Amino acid sequence: MDELRIFDPGNLRDPKLGIKSSLSEFKQTVAMVSLHFLASTEPTLNIVEKDSGDGLTFTTVQMENVVSLYESNGFEQSTIEEIRDAASKSALLTTQIEPLIVALELFIPLAEITFSSNSIGLSAERTGGNRYPKTLRYAGGLFELCGGTRIPTAELLKVFRAWLLDKSIDPSTLPLEKDLKRRIFSLVSQTQFRITREKSGESAIQFNALGLYDFLLENEHVTFDMDEKKGATRILFSALRQRMLPGLRFKGNSVYLDIGDDSDSGFSSEEIEMIFQLEVRKRELLKVKDIATMNGPGSSFAGLGVRNTVDLGYSDVGVELSIPRSAMNVIYYGVPGSGKSYEIDRLIGPDDHVERVVFHPDYLYSTFVGQILPHSEDGKVSYEFKPGPFTKLLDSAVRNPDDEHVLVIEEINRGNAAAIFGDVFQLLDRADNGESKYKVSNPEISAYITGDPNGLIGIPSNMRLLATMNTSDQNVFTLDSAFQRRWSMKMVRNDITKVSYADTRILDTSVSWRQFNTVINEVILGSNQGMASTEDKRLGAFFVREDELACVAEKSSLNPFGEKVIKYLWDDAFKFNRDALFLNSEEVSLEELLVRFNESERDDRWNRIFRSDVCSKLILPPSKAHDIEF
User: Fold this and answer.
1) What is the pLDDT of residues 579-595, one digit of tens each?
2) In contact, 397 and 353? CB cutoff 8 Å
3) Whether residues 556 and 460 fall in one domain
4) Is 383 exposed, middle or buried (0-12, 13-18, 19+ CB in 10 A)?
């Protein structure tokens, strides 16, 4: 029982409010993802390159699974051909990854979507028209949308067909479609939306679907007076145009409640009021849950937040503006190669202002924050403040309040973090609105940003600090409790299933990276090295790149895998207990070990360096190994 705990998956769901992503075919995309989810028991959907190399497609098996849903429920062949044709033109195949991320992760949590190759950056599809293979990992939102089942009824398939083909709904399935729209509202009710109004000189506003319905239940309509809609707001407007939220109609820049006997939405005013109140009550109960699990007085939590009214240009709309303080300063920690930097990169939008630094033992406050240096001009020497990356980003955040700013600190514990932050350490305490709770006096920074050396400085709510920390490096510089208290700690799970090349074989052996990573980490966890935590020494899922697993033609050549992985296991992971993994460890040196590994072939590479009991778990049995081609 002592091992029971509150589980936190460790992934911060970032608003990405700055992403300028549109997806006009929102309804069709939801239908396509849902059909693939219902047609398979697999946790993922793979979008692959066509054999011709001209564009993307779903795999044959995945597409046939969708077709079989309709065949087994008695649909005509003409309907099946319509489904095939619509699938071939799906936005999942033709649209850039960024709007898909905003739609399926941020707007409505249906699936996590990534490129199948980790070497491709999120911005790769913005120009040139290229589209790259992707992987969708289904999320619990799909279960909620589909009614908690993966066994669809014929009525559900009819609704998804109508959505996919953008056709009128069969009247007999209208009650089911209304229920689906209720579920969509529940899934998007807390997603934050943002609208800028820079041309009018007014500040940007944020709101959510609960705030929108709250206003419309008391007013005829709301008109969005805006310069630009960003991120999830664009997806919201697409969903409104396609009538995907219960009882709402979008016309021009205005949203109306379309209810009553003369409406075509099918919703009455009583139904909309009930839908709204049920969702509010659920959120209130979730808030009570958070209070019940607080760690004593003064602990912060992400609950409903406070109700505010924000001017939308014509009228006031109730919105949720509370920002969890823990979301503003986050340290991602885990074993080397677990994907900490990758997780942070996924949170950064293409329009975000980013400064990235790496802490190390010689990194100083003067480098990070700034310092006064001599400056010579026309033979005269003066002294000027030269800002560091922290001050530069802070200045930009203050001057551009509608833009998101992110300071990324790699290896935060490899430098003396408390000394590097110095007096700005106090700014890490955040109020509920995301701004620094306590401002400090720093004449140099204040004069640089505002021109007034007597002013107080603070971090605004549009500036976040995201850091990485290797757990195996905690002995470099320990982060004291006062420093850690001001950060949210997010563990990055060492998950080999997230690696697209996990099943790639290592060199010419029968052993895949998945098998090697799993077995060796089991040995690490099972070895007693007289250390506080052997789990910190595990091999990260992304410890090696795919190209480092490639076979080396010449026996005498040094290969990246041996030099990187075997050396790490010898020098670090098993430094104090090498005989738990290596064969005759007391009689060989690392040099001889690498020679044996490099000069051997196939699975003899493992037999000549690892213990026999390790090899028996690592190497495929002969019944499987003989089928492997090299």
Assistant:
1) 889 988 888 899 988 88
2) yes
3) no
4) exposed
Q: How far apart are CA 578 and CA 587, in angstroms?
A: 11
Residue with more model confidence, 525 or 464: 464
3-state secondary structure of 72: helix
φ, ψ at 190 (rounded to 5°): -110, 5
Domain limit, last residue, from 491, 510, 536 = 491
Which are the contacts of 159, defined by CB distance < 8 A and separation ≥ 6?
A: 169, 173, 176, 177, 180
Q: Which of 461, 491, 521 is the last residue of a domain?
A: 491
Does residue 330 share a domain with residue 314? no
Q: Which of 487, 30, 537 is CA-nearest to residue 239?
A: 30
The CATH code of the domain that includes 434 is 3.40.50.300
DSSP codes of every residue in 219-276: SSEEE---SEEETHHHHHHHHHHTT-STTEEEETTEEEE--STT-SS---HHHHHHHH
Is there a domain that residue 329 lies in? Answer: yes
Q: Over the chain, what is the mean pLDDT?
A: 81
Share of the chain above pLDDT 90, in %: 36
- Length of the chain measured in residues: 630
Tokens of 356: 């990235």
Would you call 527 helix, strand, or coil by DSSP? Answer: coil
Domain check: are 317 and 430 in the same one? no
487 and 517 assigned to the same domain: no
Strand-pair category, 456-457 with 380-387: unpaired
Token couple for 537: 């020494």
Q: Which two tokens stand for residue 274?
A: 């009930």
In a domain, 28, yes or no: yes
The answer on 220 and 163 residing in a single domain is: no
Of the ranges 302-311, 453-462, 579-588, the best mean pLDDT one: 453-462
Mean pLDDT, residues 229-240 taken together = 82
| Strand partners for 464 | 406
Same domain, 318 and 329: no
Six token digits for residue 117: 């190759």
DSSP code, position 480: P
Same domain, 406 and 430: yes
Domain range for 300: 189-322
Kindly report the CA angle at 263 between 259 and 268, in degrees rounded to 5? Answer: 30
Are both 53 and 137 inside the same structural domain? yes
Q: What are phi and psi of 543, to 5 degrees?
A: -60, -35
Per-residue DSSP letters for 295-307?
Answer: -STT----SS--E
The pair of structure tokens assigned to 406 is 């992110």
